[in-house]
Every structure is written in structure tokens, then in C-alpha cells.
């Protein structure tokens, strides 16, 4: 009887953490699904959009030194609940923007709340994995990917119903608030502050954390490119109009989600190092294919390759950080996830500025180099098996 109760509690814990990952991903995917519409509504060029998108990483950079402190001081449980509420509210603000500077301000706030949510939810993921007694980190990130796919489909529905981004964003925020209300009680409660005190002499990050953070940066820069620019690429480069604009983004999300739900099994079969090296090659191959063959079928297949390539890298990076013996998980994840997620936020504006100087195809080719860099660096870093 006691064993059954324990199993039920573990399952509830896993479901709760999974739903918070899902909510985080859903908020971002909702914003990403309406970028082409907001770009058109505000009459923004590629260069202007790229500049405005920089407000997201600026917001993240401003809050980054304090995110780990918040998690340590208040615990990842409380911090996650508050930050996710603010993240959902920040999403609605972007639907109110009527000028470029208003959108930039809304994105800045979105970046502030998003960074704290990202670090909090991944800290919760590490503790949930430890309490569950089984490798499940990849499945959490799979839920984030499913949220991206779900957000894309909902975005397609909202566009077909001709609902404004503001109404769309409030509907999604309401769903997120409901998830928080129903599941926050089941999140793992761990005293991060006590763990920091136990390992007080080991708070200095080692080079291993920095390097795996850079690998995560490259992967998430590629991922961010798909989130923010895949729709624009299909519309402006391939020449697709209407609902099919979201085809590239959707195919990318399907493969990324599929890869993440298979990620734990693949790690056990081929090892972390081999899987990450192959993944890097797939990212580069996919992006270069879309550049060389800018047609709807080749580019859709190419975006699927990119999705499969990025699927396993970040879960592996976060899992490695959480297992670091020198630093408590909350601090290690603050370091690694901050560096990694910075790529997710800086990749899109980088593409916009390169596109303004050359073309969108050239900017995708530049991002494609990141995949080869991942493959190279994984082979050089000691400690990845």
C-alpha cells in the first residue's frame, strides 16, 4: 500500500514538473507563432525586427546575475510559480504594442521573467529526476517541445479565426494560470539554500560548466533561429503565403519533440558524446540544405533535420550540469542554462542583422556553422562520455 502511494506521488510530481515545462514553452511558442503578423502590423523590416528582438537577451542579461540568487533565497518552487505568472502576463503586453519601442519594452520584460522561469524550471527538473530515481530530463524538454508544436497549431487556428495577437495571448495566459493553480502543490520542494551552505567551498564554476554552456548556446541559437525566423524564411525566401507559412516551424517542432522523447534511450545506447556529435552534424546539414535548396519540400525536410539535431543537446547539457559534484544543482544550472539560453535569445536578432546586411539565406548559413562547432567541441571536452 505504501509503495503504491509512493509511486502515485512520484507520478504526480513528474506530471506537475512536466506541465510547468509545457507552460514555459507554450508562452514562448505563442509569441513566436505571431511574429510574422506583428512584423507586418508594425511595418518592420528584417533589420528593425532584429534590433527589437535584442530586447529579449538584454532583459535576460539584466536579470541573469540575480536569477540564481532568487532561486537560492526563495527556493525553485516559489520562484518558478511567481516567475511563470509574470511570464504569462508579459506575453499579453506584446499584444498591446503599437510601436516598435513598445514592442521592445514588452520583449525586455518578457526576457526578465523568462530567464528566471527557465532557471527555476530546470532546477526543479534536476530535483524531480533525483527524487524520481530515473533519467527523465529529456522527457521534460520533450514537453517543452510539444508546447512549441502546440503553440504553433494554436497560432495557426488563431490566425485562421482572424483573432488579434492580444486576444490570442490572453487565451494562452489563462490556460497557463489554470495549470499553475492546479499543479503547483505537487512541485518538489527542496531547500536550495541548505545545499549551497553544505557546498560553500565549491561555488566557483569550473571550465567544464562554461564549455558545456557554450555548446548549449550554439544549439539554442539554432533553435531560436527556427522559432523566430522559420515563418519569415518560408514567407520571404521560399515565397509561401497564408497558413503554409507555419509548415517549416511545425515540422521542426515535431522532430525536436520526437527526438527528445527518444533522447534518454539514445544516450543509453550510443553515449552522450556520440549522440551530441551526430546532432551537431545534423544541425549544420539541415540549415545548409535549406540555404542551398530554398524550396518548400527540401526546406521542410531540412528543418526536420535541424529539429532532430537540437533535440538531445540541451537536455544532455543540463543533465551534466545538474550532476556536477562541485556545485549545487541550482547554482550549476544557473551558470549553464543562462549561457545556453542566451544563445536562444541572441540567435534571432543576429539573423535579423545579418539578413539586413546580406540576405536571410546568408544568415541561416552563418547559424549553420554552430552545428559543426558543437561536433568539434564535444570531441575536445573531457568529462562527456
TrEMBL record:
GO terms for molecular function: transmembrane transporter activity. It is found in: Membrane. GO terms for cellular component: membrane. The chain crosses the membrane at residues 12-32, 52-72, 79-97, 103-121, 142-161, 167-187, 208-226, 246-263, 275-295, 301-321, 333-356, 362-381. Residues 13-383 form the Major facilitator superfamily (MFS) profile domain. PROSITE patterns: MFS (PS50850). It is a multi-pass membrane protein. Keywords: Membrane, Transmembrane, Transmembrane helix. The keyword Transport does not apply. This is MFS transporter.
Amino acid at each position: 500500500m505504501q509503495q503504491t502511494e509512493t509511486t502515485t506521488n512520484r507520478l504526480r510530481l513528474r506530471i506537475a514538473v512536466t506541465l510547468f515545462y509545457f507552460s514555459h514553452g507554450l508562452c514562448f511558442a505563442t509569441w513566436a507563432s505571431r511574429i510574422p503578423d506583428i512584423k507586418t502590423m508594425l511595418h518592420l523590416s528584417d533589420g528593425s525586427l532584429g534590433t527589437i528582438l535584442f530586447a529579449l537577451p538584454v532583459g535576460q542579461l539584466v536579470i541573469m546575475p540575480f536569477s540564481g540568487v532568487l532561486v537560492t533565497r526563495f527556493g525553485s518552487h516559489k520562484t518558478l510559480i511567481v516567475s511563470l505568472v509574470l511570464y504569462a502576463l508579459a506575453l499579453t503586453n506584446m499584444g498591446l504594442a503599437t510601436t516598435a519601442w513598445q514592442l521592445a519594452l514588452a520583449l525586455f520584460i518578457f526576457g526578465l521573467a523568462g530567464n528566471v522561469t527557465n532557471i527555476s524550471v530546470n532546477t526543479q527538473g534536476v530535483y524531480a529526476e533525483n527524487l524520481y530515481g530515473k533519467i527523465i530530463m529529456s522527457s521534460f524538454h520533450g514537453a517543452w517541445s510539444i508546447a512549441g508544436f502546440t503553440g504553433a497549431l494554436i497560432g495557426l487556428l488563431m490566425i485562421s479565426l482572424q483573432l488579434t495577437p492580444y486576444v490570442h495571448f490572453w487565451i494562452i495566459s489563462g490556460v497557463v494560470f489554470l495549470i499553475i493553480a492546479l499543479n503547483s502543490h505537487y512541485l518538489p520542494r527542496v531547500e536550495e539554500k541548505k545545499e549551497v551552505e553544505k557546498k560553500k567551498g565549491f561555488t566557483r564554476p569550473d571550465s567544464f560548466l562554461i564549455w558545456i554552456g557554450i555548446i548549449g548556446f550554439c544549439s539554442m541559437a539554432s533553435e531560436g533561429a527556427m522559432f523566430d525566423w522559420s515563418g519569415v524564411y518560408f514567407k520571404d525566401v521560399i515565397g509561401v503565403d497564408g497558413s503554409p507559412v507555419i509548415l517549416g516551424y511545425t515540422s521542426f517542432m515535431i522532430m525536436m519533440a520526437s527526438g527528445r522523447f527518444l533522447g534518454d534511450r539514445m544516450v543509453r545506447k550510443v553515449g552522450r558524446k556520440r549522440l551530441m556529435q551526430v546532432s551537431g552534424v545534423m544541425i549544420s546539414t539541415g540549415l545548409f540544405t535549406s540555404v542551398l535548396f530554398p524550396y518548400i519540400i527540401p526546406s521542410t525536410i531540412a528543418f526536420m533535420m535541424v529539429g532532430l539535431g537540437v533535440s538531445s543537446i540541451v537536455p544532455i547539457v543540463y543533465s551534466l550540469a545538474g550532476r556536477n559534484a562541485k556545485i549545487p544543482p541550482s547554482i550549476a544550472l544557473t551558470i549553464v542554462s543562462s549561457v545556453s539560453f542566451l544563445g536562444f535569445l541572441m540567435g534571432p536578432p543576429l539573423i535579423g542583422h545579418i539578413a539586413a546586411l546580406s540576405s536571410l539565406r546568408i544568415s541561416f548559413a552563418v547559424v549553420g556553422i554552430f552545428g559543426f562547432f558543437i561536433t568539434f567541441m564535444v570531441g575536445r571536452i573531457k568529462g562527456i562520455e
